[in-house]
From TrEMBL:
Residues 148-311 form the Lactate/malate dehydrogenase C-terminal domain. Catalyzes the conversion of lactate to pyruvate. CDD domains: LDH_2 (cd05292). This is L-lactate dehydrogenase. Keywords: Cytoplasm, NAD, Oxidoreductase, Phosphoprotein. HAMAP family: Lactate_dehydrog. It is found in: Cytoplasm. Belongs to the LDH/MDH superfamily. LDH family. It is an enzyme of class 1 (oxidoreductase).
């Protein structure tokens, strides 16, 4: 399948996350056009002007800012607008106010780009991905949440630092909610194909239960520590979402832990959460299924329950997912 020709990315929200994403996109170069749409159009115009002044040093790219007209005929529309997570808040504390913002944005976007790939970044991302899916009416494959792509990168970083290996050679995933109930898949984690437990033993390094608890806590609480020290996270998520967009615009068929609608995965259905998925030009092209440890399955079901409860609190009940044991 050919690579998209237009390669326009529209970012809704010119706050810290939106501008960090625009900056990362500009440097990485997967898009030929980057636009920023913001409620205060002057802010978006100023950010676009600032970014444009560095165009001599990157690949040829058009950068513009304004209102919702910036979403015209976009290949990919990224939703970053919403209330930011404050110190002491969980991502799920944001659900009601950001769900209302998302519901207002969707028709504005679709009136200008009738069939884009939507990427939801605003938190709580799994809940808002479901809201965007239901409100847009787009195929499930074209509504993607940034999910645990950043959490997975944090996991690989922490393991790489512990074992003193290049993070790019660590293959380990975080699934479930992008939040406190996220699930590290220790049963699938490996370094250059060697399971983490075996690699640790070969190196004479700790891989016991306390090590696993510490690594999982480090990943799960990373955002809280950053927010406590500098009010917000944005550089990491900017790079993570750029990776998703690169997979789409370059049709890379990359395996990424994006959030998307789940249909009968270990008995979980009708909720958006993160699982390893193949991402390409058409959005989500396939789900990568793997046998998980029993403990991981139970934690994943619990994570789905957290998201489902949050959806019910804002009137998106959906179907109950089944907690009965599932084969596979």
């Amino acid at each position: 399948m050919p690579v998209r020709k237009q390669q326009k990315v529209a970012i809704v929200g010119a706050g810290r996350v939106g501008t960090a994403l625009a900056y990362a996109l500009l440097i990485k170069g997967p898009a030929r056009e980057i636009t920023l749409a913001n409620r205060t159009s002057e802010r978006a115009q100023a950010e676009a002007m600032d970014l444009s002044h560095g165009l001599s040093y990157v690949s040829p790219t058009r950068v513009a800012g304004g209102g919702y007209e910036m979403c015209d005929n976009a290949d990919v529309v990224v939703l970053t607008a919403g209330a930011a997570q404050k110190e002491g808040e969980t991502r799920l504390d944001l659900v009601r106010k950001n769900a209302e913002i998302t519901k207002k944005i969707i028709p504005e976007v679709l009136s200008r780009s009738p069939s884009p790939i939507l990427i939801v970044v605003t938190n709580p991302v799994d809940v808002l991905t479901y809201v965007a899916l239901k409100e847009s009416g787009l195929p499930a494959s074209r509504v993607i949440g940034s999910g645990t792509v950043l959490d997975t990168a944090r996991f690989s970083y922490s393991l790489g630092r512990h074992f003193e290996v290049d993070t790019r050679n660590v293959h380990a995933y975080i699934v479930g909610e992008h939040g406190d109930s996220e699930v590290p898949l220790w049963s699938r984690a490996n370094i250059a194909g060697v399971p983490v437990d075996e690699y640790g033993r070969l190196r004479g390094m700790d891989v016991g239960p306390e090590f696993r608890r510490k690594m999982a806590d480090e990943v799960r609480t990373a955002a809280y520590h950053i927010i406590e020290r500098k009010e917000a996270t944005y550089w990491g998520i900017g790079l993570a979402v750029t990776r998703i967009i690169e997979a789409i615009l370059k049709n890379q068929h990359s395996v990424l832990t994006v959030s998307a609608l789940v249909r009968d995965y270990y008995g979980i259905s009708d909720v958006c959460l993160s699982l390893p998925s193949v991402v390409g030009q058409n959005g989500i092209e396939a789900e990568v299924t793997a046998k998980l440890a029993d403990e991981e399955v139970e934690k994943l079901r619990d994570s789905a329950s957290v998201i489902q409860d949050s959806l019910r609190s804002i009137g998106y009940s959906g179907r109950e997912y089944h907690r009965a044991a599932a084969s596979g």
